[in-house]
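Data availability (excerpt). The following record was deposited with the supplementary files.
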Amino acid sequence: MPATAKSSHEQDLAFAQRVLAGNDSAAAELRSRYHGKIVGVLRARGASETEAEDLTADLWTDCFAARPNRQTLLTKFQGRCALESWLLTVATHRLVDLKRRQTFRVEVPVSTESNEDFFDQRPGPEPASAPSEKQLVLLLREATRQAFAKGDAESILILKLVHLHQLTQREIARMWGWHESKVSRALDVTRENIARNILSELKRVDPWLELRWEDFVELCAGSTDMLF
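Predicted structure:
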């Protein structure tokens, strides 16, 4: 039987479990601790004030009350990243979903020959559905893939040998016949190019989305703890 992944944020996990156990003071602390931060980050990432407040309110609702046939949202937190990062990632997932639904919403014009009453012509409420929490994961993954595809093959290989295969810069220098300082510069340039290309691809796909490199890293870390 495979071992369960050990939490690296035990205090956050214990705190979340107190909230889930119905501890009123813990629930109040959760909101007071993170509400302002979530609203502020959503605003910085492209949400309007109303969107940020509404998304955050919905997030708290789902943390404390389960939707039909679904678990309470907070039960999905496994402690593999900080609780704050996880909440911000969930909120950003939902922001991406909201913005994309707004983009692709199509209003069908009503014929002037129709005999329907004006109020009958108004669109009805959209059906309630759970947000597509995987939209952002797919966006981050594809942006990363595109960025690596644009990179110089030799530079990408060196980067992989260092970060995936744990070779030292000295070993790389010997293999390539370079000085270590050249390897270091090549790695720095490659990392910078990948970061720039990732952010450029994210902006190309979702022009409204405002992310810094630090935001991208945080979202990737938060996404590892998402089990939707």
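Summary of structural features: The two ends are 23 Å apart (CA to CA).
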